[in-house]
């Protein structure tokens, strides 16, 4: 028999102290002499590093209420008595606290001063191991129990390497005490006999679970122990549910181990290459496990949804998948995978049921491991037809969503989710000449997006590093397809970077978070080609690779490892002015229920309970809209956890400080009229609604400026300014508010004469990601003082900071206005007229275009009083201080339009008539929405801008493309500055067609030296056009700015530019 030594890279290094099986153990030795030492004096117990009593009590309760039900190795009454008497082993106490921290509510750990569960786990683990190393007073059984509890790995690389050693040491020490021998002939007390059997079988179960899952050797030899099996009477001090559960686990693990040795051990697997032998083995496994399932009392504990029942079923299907998958791999032709896939679906369903009734803290890590095995089984299925990644994404979605919930408890869940997301999103070209089988497994989507540390932990040694980056095995940087999956986030720290060390100082000590630490031991040597150095056969990483092979995914592991080897080599630490996506620090958010609950208690102190909402209607309202380009429905919306309504800059600052400290994502919201998904809370967390910050702080008529809060709409602002003869020129959609207008850098119909939002913002008050409040400049109209931070924040869409006040320039409202409307036979003729007007030097206040489809929709919707000619139409607005000059300009424009083929030209100077003529332009979007055949039909609104000389060309091409697509679509826009929009109406099933139309239009605009967006902003929808328009280096510079302003990436994360791979 073999054991494990801490820090050793081999699975097979013997432990000299306890390598030999104990054959003869005296049963007559009194307990007080043979099994324990004298209790230490109470005054000598060191408790200075323990949590305060009330927190200890909560950790101990978490241990016995949540962990103990799955593993009653520590007697509850005996522990409570010794704790009360002051005789409890200080080491065992610390180990109980450590395991309790894995399963307690996160609020307890926050009160202890830890920002994350990982921090608390690491701290308590280190204290427990230090106590273990220096303990000379605890009795032997307490040390055995302590060693057992310390093997419950929580994500630290050092503790993972020691995890097998802790378990093996506990088993060997128990064997040295004779725990593997029958108690029938012993003279021990009845209670001691019961404790003896309980401890041994808990050790046995854990040994089998670990070995069956990771492929590591079993420490316990079935032929070398003769302890009587547990019966209900042996667990009389436990609840009947726990007793039945642990007995069923004993039976299940004995059964699974026997099947493993009969069919799946290294000596037996080669025989399974013969089809008949393999078929017989698979049938035996299915029948034997089904027999256990049918007869087990633990399967029907109390009620169907009892968490112990659910956990037993999870273990059953977990072993079922693992054993059959090992056999299935022996077939070159695959074989019948239906039983495996059915079991995988059962795992998904059971986990969903579990999370429906219980929180993740109530379950052991075997849930995470079972999800991993189920998802791997689906990935290995060869029956899917191309494109396989699309089907795979749908099939493993339940697993991804479940892992998202387990992330709050188990760091391992984050890694697994990242692993599959990276595999799904890596393009086929990155695989080089690898096998078609592997390419099929990891082909990306066409449409683009407690503690039982077992299966994934072993696999993590090789492919886990894959999550470090999706860089291909070449010197080229990766291209990423846009994912359709909106599960956010892959929030996990992996690499050695500044953010990581700041968040987790202990990571620098242990070598970074475990996937990066482990990958450093896999590969060595020079990585200047596709050739990679493979791990040595005796290393942990090699064994992990072997386990992937056991699951039929060796080639997948090989590719993942190769990708990572290049990634780690290429991402050497260096100074750089830019930040490529592959080098971006991993995002680590915490939107867990416990963290949000604790944060809400702090928010209540800041803004009051009435300013906080968790009502679903509010969450849905702040999650998206029907008229935005981003795919959104109320049923499938990603919801924030809470909506906050602050009223002052200081309140926003205090809220953001809480979010920064707790790593809670923040999504700003004002008018909710954005088009490109700017306020989609894809990482959930906190939504800060600025609508109650709607005050005008100052109006300075002489200086032509005002100071406003972000929640006031531009229409309301102009209503207030009218009495002063002033107005604020940018005029986007009527519901837009100043905060969102600053964020998107919008414009509106007045842009031709007055410019865009950035031209009308003097200064901003901004709350940065850590809660710092800054003002970008004073009120002077011009300034060369330092960097122009005002321009930096305009158009940043809330990704660099949250605007809480804006000092805006104002314009004097022209006393005279004229509106003119003219129609044309073609869109090109109308666009040519605009180009000639602009090139002639005639200043118009606004010029808008609507095509014949849009004019028809306006008539059908009857949103205006007039009946319009259904032809391409231009709307002009002229303004000035002299009525004669304004009308003269209108007539000159009429002459130009006539030369370009206009059939009618009508203008009006009366205010009522002007408003009537202009009403058609403002009704464009709503008239398109009115044409929906079904409530679920969508409108995709997008915009581009080009130099005026190319305006006729792109409008003509875009119009032809829309007509060819078969969708209802129209052309509208502020063509006076080369900016126009398309409105596409489509049923959801035709979204890919609409997306393709938009994609081609944006490509055309960029080819014509234009831009992907003139005023709507980037949001989520247009991120991937930025690099094509501006170049990779420019986008990498923006990413470096984002990382500098928001190192935790909590502010509207992943908008404008990607901060994590797609």
Q: In words, what does this structure look like?
A:
It is built from 39 helices and 18 strands. It is of the alpha+beta class and 1062 residues long. It folds into 4 domains: 221 residues, no CATH class; 260 residues, no CATH class; 245 residues, 2-Layer Sandwich (Uridine Diphospho-n-acetylenolpyruvylglucosamine Reductase, domain 3), CATH 3.30.465; 212 residues, Vanillyl-alcohol Oxidase, Chain A, domain 3, CATH 3.40.462. A 7-stranded antiparallel beta sheet has the order 15-12-14-13-17-18-16, sandwiched between helices. It has a 5-stranded antiparallel beta sheet with strand order 5-6-10-8-9. A 4-stranded mixed beta sheet has the order 1-2-4-3. The N terminus is likely disordered.
Keywords summarizing the entry:
1062 residues; alpha+beta; Uridine Diphospho-n-acetylenolpyruvylglucosamine Reductase, domain 3; 4 domains; seven-stranded antiparallel β-sheet; five-stranded antiparallel β-sheet; 18 strands; 46% helix; 9% strand; disordered N terminus
